[in-house]
Amino acid sequence: MRFKSRLIRGTLIQRYKRFLADVRLASGEVVTAHCTNTGSMMGCKEPGSAVYISRSENLNRKLLYTWELIRANNTWVGINTMHPNKLVPEAVEAGRITELSGYQTIRREVKVSAHTRLDLCLEGASGSCYVEVKNVTLAVNGVAAFPDAVSERGTKHLKELMRLKRQGHRAAIVFVIQRGDCEGFRPADEIDAEYGRWLRRAINAGVDALPYRAKVTPKEILLTARIAMNF
Hints:
alpha/beta; 231 residues; globular; five-stranded mixed β-barrel
């Protein structure tokens, strides 16, 4: 996924009210950027860090800028949670997620119950595969971890994937690790023990857990390789 326009470099002043970030540009101007990430962003919100933001062409937007990247642990980290839902279908179509190959069509935002939608449904001659996509920015001692805040919604998604698996469908969860400095992935049990328990149950029930690391640069974000699960 290439960024549509050239990103603008700045310095993070603060992230606040979950959805807002003040950024100082090289000119000295301070702008407020939209933060799509609703998690705690642990380790990815340090004031004074180098960041990149994008500028919308829609001049009617309340906030013209969107926070895209931050420099953390000497690596660029993608914090925009909207991008994984583009990255995964792109990677599936390009054959970079080999575990999800062989499907002819991809549907997005698929309603699977009265109150739940999953990100993708892959369909082909072999049947359907329901896929939930999660953005991962947290790293602990070189290992990516999810979630970075208690996620009841994430646990609900795991239960839905297990239900679909019991019905005879294939089910998978793709963890998009938007940083290149992690060699493994694990559930963040110290933050949300319930999510960790349900992720292990889902895997034991046959749900595929696929942690994929991304190469993140100010020009593009690209899924590159599956990394090991560390339990």
